[in-house]
Specification:
Distance between the termini: 87 Å
Strand content: 5-15%
Largest sheet: 3 strands, antiparallel
Helix content: 55-70%
Strand order of the largest sheet: 2-4-5
Oligomer: single chain
Number of helices: 22
Number of strands: 5
Structural class: mainly alpha
Shape: globular
């Protein structure tokens, strides 16, 4: 027997839709909170909320589910699909099973937090991509590398700074997403993957987003003001790139380069926060390496949307590089490894760091040369794997720094040995 969350089909007229949420004729908006199968009619006036079926019971009962899908198609004359994360995916019955499996594999605690949050808060959590923390990690890792490289020989990195920059990464990534979605509202409505974003879908107005952005930037400013004066000035200089980055896809084939300039500012700021100023012999090659890394992972990410972007007249390195993408990205991967190598030499890093660097090169090679650029899911998986790459480098820096011998202590030991002799 199919285990059901509800057994009654409800026809909800537009007059009472506000008690749930809105149901537009795009079939992309939220009609009901939960996870399962959802059907909507193809009109703006009514929404048909039908039986919700637990995904865990899908495979055991797929025959009944498919039969139910077909009957609802006939009765409602609308669409059907799997509903999760407040997004409706319109799928054919043959694809429902694979999507249910995909959702189980991609489940994260952050997703559960979003789904458990009050309905009024959920759109804001989805706006900052709280259920997709990979962007926060990609913003945080360059900060953490810089902080760890700035640590004294034989010591762990400053945990307070790591925590502070972690919170800052979460807040500023959210602010960046808000700015991006405010700029791209009309474009997002035309791209399948982004149609359900809160601003594009109308769950949040531009004014509400602007107020929310102000709150995020206030929190970000308070974090920045807790740092030294040099870092405050350096951090303030990053505001302009953050604001203009979303426009780059309209005017240049290299928006990923501008993303790299923006998202990796922490590679400069982390060192300055610990040491009081930048040692450019270290942070400049580190920053260059991070920018190259961003071009690699975001070009792979961009291949998910290349058809929609071409239709809309938007530009990206994914479109510009085309079939030559693996060759281009190999060059940027080599630049990343070289930059990290130079930064390591300038910091007098030790063997654990260079072992991690070797693993980084292997990881990048695996990404670039095995990704199926015409498979959106594979592009997403390769993009998301960069979280592991960031962790590899961080562990290598920490281990390499712990293995260092403090120069002053080493010289003092030499003097003591000479005195004894």
């Amino acid at each position: 027997m199919v285990i059901l969350r509800a057994t009654t089909t409800l026809l909800v007229r537009s007059s009472v839709l506000k008690s749930l949420t809105k149901c537009p004729n795009t079939l992309r908006r939220t009609c009901f909170s939960g996870t399962g199968i959802l059907y909507c009619t193809n009109t703006h006036k009514e929404c048909s909320i039908t039986t919700q079926i637990h995904e865990d019971n899908y495979h055991a009962n797929k025959t009944q589910i498919h039969r139910h899908y077909s009957s609802m198609q006939d009765r409602c004359g609308g669409g059907g699909g799997l509903f999760a994360n407040n997004e409706l995916r319109l799928l054919q019955p043959s694809k429902l099973a694979s999507f249910a499996q995909e959702r189980r594999l991609n489940w994260k605690p952050t997703t559960a937090i979003v789904e458990a949050a009050p309905s009024k808060i959920q759109p804001y959590l989805r706006l900052i991509r709280f259920d997709r923390p990979i962007g926060t990690w990609l913003l945080f890792w360059p900060c953490s590398w810089s902080i760890a490289l700035a640590a004294d020989p034989g010591h762990f990195p400053d945990f307070y700074m790591l925590g502070l920059f972690g919170v800052g990464a979460l807040v500023m990534r959210g602010a960046g997403c808000t700015i991006n979605d405010m700029w791209d509202r009309d474009f997002d409505k035309s791209v399948e993957r982004t149609q359900s974003r809160p601003i594009a879908a109308g769950d949040i107005t531009r004014f509400q987003a602007l107020v929310f952005l102000g709150a995020q930037l206030t929190v970000g400013l308070s974090i920045l003001l807790s740092l030294n004066t040099y870092s405050i000035i350096l951090g303030a200089a990053s505001v302009l790139p953050v604001v203009v980055y979303p426009l780059m896809k309209r005017i240049t084939n290299w928006p990923q380069l501008f993303l790299g300039l923006t998202i990796n500012w922490g590679a400069l700021l982390g060192w300055a926060a610990v040491q009081g100023s930048c040692d450019w012999s270290v942070v400049l090659p580190l920053y260059t390496a991070c920018m190259s890394w961003s071009i690699v992972y975001d070009t792979i990410y961009g291949h998910q949307d290349k058809k929609d972007d071409q239709t809309l007249g938007l530009k990206s390195t994914s479109i510009y590089m085309g079939d030559k993408t693996p060759y281009w990205l190999t060059g940027f991967a080599a630049t990343m490894v070289t930059g990290l190598g130079i930064a390591g030499v300038m910091c007098e890093q030790t063997m654990p760091y260079y072992v991690a660097l070797g693993l980084t090169a292997a990881h990048l090679g695996q990404q670039v040369w095995t990704v199926d650029l015409n498979n959106s899911q594979d592009c997403w998986n390769k993009f998301r794997s960069n979280h592991r790459l960031g962790a590899i480098i961080f562990v290598g820096i920490v281990a390499g720094t712990l293995a260092k011998v403090n120069k002053d202590k080493k010289n003092q030991d030499k003097k003591e040995n000479k005195g004894d002799s």
